[in-house]
Structure formats: C-alpha cells, structure tokens
Amino acid sequence: MASKMIWSAILIASPAIAASSVTPKPNARIGSVQKPYISAGSYRWLDDNKGDPSGTVIVNATISANQRGVNLERESSNITIRDSTISGVKPQPNTLYPAGVYAEHGQSLLIERTTIRDWTTVPNEKYRQGDCIDAEWGFVGLTLRDVVLSGCTDGGYDGKARDVLLDRVKSTGNKKNYRFWYSMVSATSIDSINPSQIHIETNTRTDGTHGMGAGSLTAKRVTFKSGGKQPLLSLGPNAFVKIDECVIAVPAGTPFVRYHDGGSASNVKLMLGKSCGRTAHGNAINTHVNVR
Asked: Most exposed: 89, 131, 253, 268, by fewest CB within 10 Å?
C-alpha cells in the first residue's frame, strides 16, 4: 500500500506533458510555478496561423519543437514568455528556416528569464539558417529581459523588428550572436560569448521590400568574450552604433571593427566609450573588468 501511495504522489507532482502543439486561444495561461508545462517533438508548438494567441502568458514551460517553437505571423499581440526553455529537436533542412521564436507580424512580445537554444540546420554548401530569435520588420515592440540565446547556426538574435529593448541578454555560441537589420535597437547590457563568426553585425537594405535603412544599436554596456579572433563589430553602410561601456576579453589581434557590403569608416557612425579601446592597428584592447 505504501508503494502505491508514493507512486500516486509522484503522478500528482509531475508536470503536464504534451506531445503536440497547442491550439492558440486569446488570453490563455500555459504553465505556472506550481504546474510546469512540457511539450516535446511538435513541428510548431505555438502557431498563430491556427488561432489567436493574443494576451497569452507562458510560464515555466519546457518546449522542444522541430521547425519553430513560437510562430507569430498574424498580428498577434501582448504575449509573454517567462521562466521557460525553448529548444530545437534536431538540425532541420535549410529551407525550413527554423527558429525558436519567429515574430513576423504583430506587437508587444515580452520574453524574460528564458533560454532559447539549438535551432539549427543540417550542413550544406549554402548559407546555414537557424536563429534563436528571428524578429521581422512587421513586428513592433519586443523586449528580451534576462534571456540566453545559444547554439544556433545563424543568429542568436536576428532582428528587423522595431521598438526593441535588449535588457541583460546573453548570446553565446551562435554563428553571429547579434544581427541588427535596418532597425533601432536599444540595450541596457548584452553579452556576446564565443560566436563562431561575428559578435555583432549590422545590415543595410535599400530596396524597401521589407523595410529599409541601416541597422543600429545604442547600448549602455556590451561584453565581448571569445577564445577566437572573431571581429567584435561587422558593419554595413550607414550603420549607427553607440556603446557607452565595453568589457572585452579576447585574444590579442582580434579586430574591433570590420566592414562589409559597402560599409566603411566614412559611411558609418561609431561612438565608443573609453573602455572600448582599440590599438593603432584597429584591434580590440582587453579591459581589466571581470567578464561575467
């Protein structure tokens, strides 16, 4: 009898486990501190093509999916993801454009105290897709607070969205930890750790198809840390980057800035605080502040 009572207690305390996607509904509540939510193996876990998730709050959820964890294409609004993990199941075909969170159209998405990781594509001879967060031009109002983005084969944060705040965000082990496209991004503190190619990249578009202009970043503090010599900044034409304070721990000879696709020292605006030091050859100078 005692063993049956123990087994019953375990069942009651266990989190709810779902093997498939959820049906989006307005003002839904998914997961809680008392009742964690787990879903494994769906194609897209939350997809607003199947219903309106506006007002949904997701808390204490562990989600793994194949193509996308959260997919927002239909003008959804006021969604919160908190204290959760959203991870990719396995490398996907490049044509599927996998992403932990894909925000194409809509407004007001808050993600906090959450890890988004391992959104990858299989190796190929072309550019490998796979973003932890892919925020497109049609989305307005995105806040990331105490978020970790890791292990994605393209961008950690790959953003074209408008009205974006990065508040204590760490991007680690992605190809390009941060990619800013023709949109204004504000940051309190962001960390870039061990990208395989670039710490921070800005991109410029002039065709007007999906917005136009140059990527920009205004940050109070940026931490750069890596074991390789990946450039800290890679800037396209007309980029605007302002960093008040840098924390730098990289190998000697690491380029601070490189330019691409027509970017140059004459057509970008770069404003760096005193701790963002460069040698006469343009290489980064490590700071004496402990890297978190």
From this structure: 253
